[in-house]
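Input (structure):
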C-alpha cells in the first residue's frame, strides 16, 4: 500500500497570505496533498488567527497544480447550510481542476456556536450531518432539488456550475455509531486517532453498503509535530500552541471559546505535551510517530507543523528529508 503524506494549512496559527505561500512551498517540497482546517476561532488565543478557509483554498488552488486539496474538516450543519457547502465545494473542484476532496464532520462548539443557534447533543449533530450529506450529494448532480428533512429544508435549489469530476466526500468518525451512519454515505474515512478497529469497522460497513472493496476507500488521519533545530524551542512552541490537543474529542467538541481551552489546558505542562507530540530536530523520531497510523491501515496522513514562525524553515529544511523517511515507512 502506498501511503500519501499531506501538509496541513493550519488556519488557527497563520494568516491567509501566509497560508497561500506555505501551500505553494509544500507542493514544491513534495507533499501529496494539503488539508485546511475550517474554523471561526483559534483553539488558543496565542495562536491568534482564523481566516476563512474557503477563500484561502480558492487562492491555493491557483498557486498549486499538483497537490490534492481538502477541508479537514467542514461542518455543514450550523455555521453553513449544506446547500451553501454544496455550491462552494463544486466551485472549488472547478477552480482546482478536480483536485478537491470535501472533508466533513459534525463540528465543534468553538466554531458553530457563533451563529447563535446553541449547540445540540452529539446524536442530533450526527443526524443533521446525515441530512447534510444527502443534500450535498443531490445538489452535486446539477439537478433541481427540493428537500424536506427533520433538520433542513431546501427549496428549488440547483448548482449551475457542476464540475466534470465528482466531489468525493470524506467524513470524520470516532466509533461504530458514526461509522454506521456515515460509511454508507461517504467515499472516505477521516479519523483523529490511529485506531485499527475504526479502519476495520469502516471497511466492513463501507464494503457491505457500496459493494466496493476496502481499497476503494481512503482512511485519512492527521498528526501534529513540532520540528525545530533546538528541542527546547520545539517543546515550548508546542506547549504554547497545542496544549489543547490532549483534551480528547469529547472535550474539544464542546468547549465554546479559546478562553475555555485556555482554562481546560491550564495545568498541562511542557513535558506533558512533549510526551504526546514529537518535538525537536530528530526527523527519524518524527517519522516513527506516524507509524501507528500506518500500522492501523490509514492510507493518508497529514502533518501539522506547529507554529507559524516555524513554517518557512520547516518547509525549506525539514520537509523533503522527512518525506523521504515517511515514504520509507509507508
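Output (sequence):
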Amino acid at each position: 500500500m502506498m501511503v500519501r503524506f499531506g501538509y496541513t494549512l493550519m488556519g488557527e496559527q497563520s494568516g491567509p497570505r501566509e497560508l497561500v505561500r506555505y501551500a505553494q512551498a509544500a507542493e514544491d517540497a513534495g507533499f501529496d496533498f494539503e488539508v485546511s482546517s475550517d474554523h471561526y476561532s483559534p483553539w488558543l488565543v496565542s495562536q491568534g488567527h482564523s481566516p476563512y478557509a474557503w477563500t484561502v483554498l480558492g487562492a491555493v488552488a491557483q498557486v498549486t497544480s499538483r497537490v490534492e486539496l481538502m477541508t479537514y474538516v467542514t461542518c455543514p450543519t450550523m455555521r453553513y447550510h449544506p446547500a451553501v457547502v454544496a455550491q462552494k465545494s463544486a466551485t472549488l473542484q472547478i477552480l482546482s481542476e478536480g483536485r478537491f476532496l470535501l472533508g466533513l464532520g459534525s463540528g465543534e462548539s468553538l466554531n458553530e456556536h457563533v451563529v447563535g443557534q446553541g449547540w445540540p447533543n452529539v446524536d442530533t449533530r450526527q443526524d443533521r450531518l446525515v441530512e447534510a450529506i444527502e443534500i450535498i450529494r443531490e445538489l452535486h448532480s446539477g439537478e433541481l432539488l427540493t428537500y424536506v428533512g427533520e433538520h433542513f429544508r431546501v427549496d428549488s435549489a440547483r448548482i449551475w456550475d457542476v464540475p466534470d469530476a465528482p466531489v468525493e466526500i470524506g467524513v470524520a468518525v470516532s466509533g461504530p455509531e458514526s461509522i454506521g451512519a456515515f460509511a454508507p454515505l461517504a467515499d472516505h474515512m477521516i479519523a483523529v486517532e490511529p485506531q485499527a478497529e475504526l479502519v476495520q469497522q469502516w471497511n466492513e460497513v463501507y464494503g457491505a453498503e457500496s459493494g466496493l472493496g476496502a481499497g476503494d476507500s481512503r482512511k485519512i488521519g492527521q498528526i501534529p509535530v513540532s520540528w525545530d533545530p533546538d528541542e527546547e524551542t520545539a517543546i515550548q512552541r508546542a506547549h504554547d500552541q497545542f496544549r489543547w490537543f490532549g483534551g480528547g474529542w469529547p472535550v474539544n467538541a464542546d468547549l465554546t471559546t479559546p478562553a475555555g481551552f485556555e482554562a481546560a489546558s491550564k495545568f498541562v505542562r511542557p513535558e506533558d505535551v512533549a510526551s504526546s507530540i514529537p518535538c525537536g530536530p530528530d526527523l527519524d523520531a518524527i517519522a516513527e510517530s506516524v507509524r501507528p497510523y500506518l500500522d492501523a491501515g490509514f492510507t493518508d496522513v497529514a502533518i501539522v507543523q506547529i507554529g507559524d514562525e516555524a513554517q518557512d524553515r520547516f518547509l525549506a529544511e525539514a520537509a523533503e528529508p522527512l518525506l523521504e523517511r515517511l515514504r520509507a515507512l509507508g
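Notes: Residues 4-329 form a domain with the TIM Barrel fold (CATH 3.20.20.30). Residues 136 and 241 are 34 Å apart (CA to CA).
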